[in-house]
Design brief:
A: alpha/beta, Rossmann fold, OB fold (Dihydrolipoamide Acetyltransferase, E2P), 2 domains, 6-stranded mixed beta sheet, about 25% helix, B: mainly beta, 5-stranded antiparallel beta sheet, 10 strands, about 60% strand, elongated
């Protein structure tokens, strides 16, 4: 259990805001912090990591106090049992992939662990490559592998996939889920991609101007409504094409385009680029063995 | 989509199926739902929206017997023709119901503005929303 009760004044492009969070995160959760830039989401992640210091409050992880302003406690980042993955990978450019992982290992005798993780992340063939010779997706995989060397309890992910193309993004999302489950992690992701939130997390904290505005499952936070349809996916509107008196809305869902018919009045407020919830009843889809 | 506001008046369960009846201005609508734990908000007395797509609405002459439980006779208020399809608007106790069917069907049934026709939608095509 992670208990966070903190306050910090932030100076953002929108002016001064107070980041004020009082939440508990259950072990094993995959939690997403969702909000616009300048809402305080990355700062919250950095505060958990010990990279930013709150003005006041407490952070308690499994009964261990990481931060308590009233008692002057502030455990250093190195002593917090976390892994942090950034958008820009932050690999050492002058070390091979293997050396990058070795550097993170606490006990150098444990080198079999490097092999194990390299294999699991499909990086064995690249172990002697330098970071500048591998792709963005591979670099991010190395960054995730490196955090695993220290057996973290908590994985902090700051928009780790936002620089990748859709195919690589989807693949790495699956890998993050596998790692999260296999290592029994509590993962906290900062993201502003709704489909990613649905795919990865079981809980979402929506944050605006430093305050949590909603807290719940992706469905309850994003659909803003209770809808009885059992077949629900979210995606991005790619195009809207007239077809006789109907309109065909093309929606990108997990790298595939799905087509939905609609009437004019239903698409009046829907624009290209909008995120939408597509729902249907469990009775409509037809199954065919492949 | 077609949207009507009503109140849940009864719920019947069988295994994971729920048959929910909704009172809409004195007319009873039925929705067949696959129930799960997230559907606790579906309870008698809740005010809900009943949703169904225009393309799921069928039209028949007013004397017809049909298996669809949501079957009502209403006056045609408007007909808008495309090349293949036609959008027929019914006046359902002051609310508009849209049916999108082929123009051939409209011609065969001889639908015209001002006529009374039966429109219907199956229970398993109806979504409810709070």
């Amino acid at each position: 259990m992670i208990k966070i009760d903190i306050k910090k004044t932030l100076h953002t492009s929108d002016g001064k805001i107070i980041l004020k969070i009082n939440k508990e995160i259950i072990n094993g959760d995959f939690l997403t912090i969702f909000g616009k830039s300048g809402s305080g989401k990355t700062t919250l992640l950095r505060i958990i990591a010990g990279l930013d210091i709150p003005d006041s409050g407490k952070i308690i992880v499994d009964n261990e106090t990481w931060f308590d302003s009233s008692k002057g406690i502030n455990i250093s980042t190195q002593k917090r049992n976390i892994g942090f993955v950034f958008q820009d990978y932050a690999l050492f450019p002058n070390m091979t992939i293997r050396q990058n992982l070795e550097f993170a290992l606490n006990n150098k005798k444990n080198s079999h662990k490097i092999d194990e993780i390299l294999e699991m992340m499909e990086l064995t063939n690249l172990s002697n490559s330098m970071p500048n010779t591998i792709s963005g997706g591979q670099k991010q995989r190395v960054a995730v592998a490196r955090t695993l060397m220290r057996n973290p309890k908590i994985l902090l992910l700051d928009e780790p996939l936002s620089a990748l193309d859709n195919t690589m993004r989807s693949k790495l999302q699956n890998e993050l889920l596998t790692v999260h489950k296999r290592f029994g992690l509590t993962s906290i992701l900062v993201s502003h991609d709704i489909s990613e939130v649905f795919k990865l997390s079981n809980r979402v904290l929506k944050i605006a101007f430093g305050q949590i505005t909603s807290d719940g499952s992706p469905n309850s936070v994003f659909s803003n409504l209770n809808l009885s349809g059992k077949f629900k996916v979210t995606g991005e509107v790619i195009s809207i094409v007239k077809a006789d008196i109907l309109f065909i809305v093309n929606i990108l869902v997990n790298n595939e385009i799905i087509k939905i018919t609609s009437v004019k009045k239903d698409i009046e407020n829907i624009n290209i680029g909008d995120n939408v919830l597509v729902s249907s009843k469990a009775f409509n889809p037809i199954l065919t063995k492949i | 989509m077609n949207t009507l506001r009503g109140t849940i008046i009864s719920i019947k369960h069988e295994d994971s199926l729920m048959l929910v009846c909704i009172d809409i201005k004195g007319q009873i609508f039925s929705s067949l739902i696959l129930a799960n734990d997230n559907d606790k908000w579906i309870e008698v007395g809740s005010n809900v929206d009943v949703l169904f797509k225009e393309t799921e609405v069928m039209i028949a002459t007013k004397e017809s017997l049909v298996s669809a439980r949501n079957s009502f006779v209403s006056t045609i208020k408007d007909i808008e023709n495309g090349k293949l399809l036609s959008s027929v608007t019914f006046d359902f106790n002051g609310s508009e119901i849209n049916a999108i069917v082929t123009i051939d069907a409209i011609n065969d049934l001889k639908c015209n503005i001002g006529n009374d026709f039966r429109w219907f939608v199956k229970t398993n095509e109806v979504i409810i929303k709070i």
